[in-house]
Design goal:
The chain is an alpha/beta fold. The protein has one domain: Aldolase class I (TIM Barrel, Alpha-Beta Barrel), CATH 3.20.20.70. The strands form five sheets. It has an eight-stranded parallel beta barrel with strand order 6-7-8-9-10-11-12-13, surrounded by five helices. Strands 1-2 form a two-stranded antiparallel sheet. Strands 3-16 form a two-stranded antiparallel ribbon. The longest helix has 19 residues. The chain starts with a strand and ends in a 6-residue tail after the last helix.
Length: 386
């Protein structure tokens, strides 16, 4: 599988969404009759898409609306919502900042300490609306915030960092024992992020119920440029799905694979499921929703790092309501709206009645798939040429 890249050094070829295509098989299905539901830790969600725990994407109101529509929105407990009693003022300031000042401003507003009472308050606000409450934080805050969140009624807890492993080494602070943590919590835990077969398998052995797969593919993330690390999402998802299947055969426990980032249109999401994902997590597409708190702007989770930001603020615009983005009708021609409609139509064309049947469709390497026959779209910057 590996190729020589120089004397004594080999490298494996890996693939991203733009390099593959899905092949229709011997049957087709009425798209209105396919099942796109996602089962996770004994619960069923109509929409197999999670809104990323980013401050320009998810706040309390967004989480409530996403839950009402049948999906999951993850609230960032390390972000603006738990640092400021009135986060709208700060979000407005970020939206108005010039590109030259945006990163500096974001670094500044995230130096305000997190208020523990706001952790409990935000979860309670979501639960008061009878919505699913899913929250996220970094490993260093997990033990403290999980107690507050669970007491307030949180349904799922996410631990997320740039790269998560079971063997984190540090002499400067106490590391989180993921095995102990997952076993002690009374609610399901999702761990992320990782991109390899071996690490995915080791993280599954902690007792987690889900894995976030992806390092650096997000629209607002610059980790790949700043740190030079990451694996394209097609290969990362296939490898992680392989670990899931091996773990299931060995233990009988099914751990969900959630492809996180790198998808900004329906076709990418369909390809992620074909690569083995059980659900996907996206940010930039939801940042374009009228309900998103970012006011048409989106920034990476690590943008606020004081010394080495690994993200940037990007303008994505506001194109429609959350319902338009998820369920349509689409008002744009680039595949960024009616994501569930795209998934259903793709499943129908591929003959997949259930979401897991997408795992078995044929995938081909097709680097020309984005440009073949699209000269007018590219020239006019419409549709797939945008």
């Amino acid at each position: 599988m590996a190729e020589w890249i120089g004397i004594g050094r080999r490298a494996r070829r890996c693939y991203g969404f733009d390099e593959i295509a899905l092949v229709p098989g011997a049957r087709t299905v009425n798209p209105n009759e396919v099942d796109t539901s996602f089962e996770f830790a004994g619960k069923k969600f109509k929409i197999p898409i999670l809104a990323a725990a980013m401050d320009g994407v998810v706040d309390v109101k967004f989480a409530i609306e996403m839950s009402r529509l049948g999906g999951i929105a993850v609230l960032n407990l390390d972000g603006i919502q738990t640092r400021y009693e009135n986060p709208d003022t700060v979000l407005e300031e970020i939206a108005k900042a010039t590109p030259a000042k945006a990163t500096e401003l974001i670094q500044s507003v995230y130096t305000t300490p997190i208020k523990e009472k706001l952790v409990s308050k935000r979860v309670s606000e979501i639960k008061k609306a009878k919505a699913t409450s899913v929250v996220s934080c970094i490993p260093a805050n997990a033990e403290r915030f999980s107690k507050l969140a669970i007491e307030a009624g949180a349904d799922i807890f996410v631990i997320q960092s740039t790269v998560t492993t079971t063997k984190h080494i540090s002499t400067q602070y106490k590391t989180l024992d993921l095995h102990k943590f997952c076993k002690s919590l009374k609610i399901p835990v999702i761990l992320g992020n990782c991109v390899t077969y071996e690490t995915t398998l080791e993280l599954m052995e902690t007792g987690a119920s889900g894995m976030l797969i992806g390092v650096g593919p997000g629209a607002a993330c610059t980790t790949r440029g700043v740190l030079g690390i990451g694996v394209p999402q097609v290969t990362a998802t296939v490898d992680a799905a392989g670990a899931r299947d091996f773990y299931f055969k060995r233990t009988g426990k099914y751990v969900s694979i959630i492809t996180d980032g790198g998808m900004n249109r329906g076709g990418d999401i369909c390809k992620a499921f074909a690569c083995g994902a059980d659900a996907v997590m996206i940010g930039s597409s939801f940042a374009r929703a009228q309900e998103a708190p970012g006011r048409g702007f989106h920034w990476g989770m690590a943008t606020s790092h004081v010394n080495l930001p690994r993200g940037t603020r990007i303008q994505v615009g506001t194109t429609g309501g959350l319902k338009d983005i998820l369920l349509g009708p689409a008002k744009v021609d680039d595949g960024s709206q009616n994501l569930i409609g795209a998934l259903k139509t793709s499943m129908g064309s591929l003959g997949a009645m259930q979401l897991k049947e997408m795992h078995d469709v044929e995938i081909i390497i097709a680097p020309s798939i984005q440009t073949e026959g699209k000269i007018f779209q590219v020239g006019q910057r419409v549709g797939m040429g945008k």
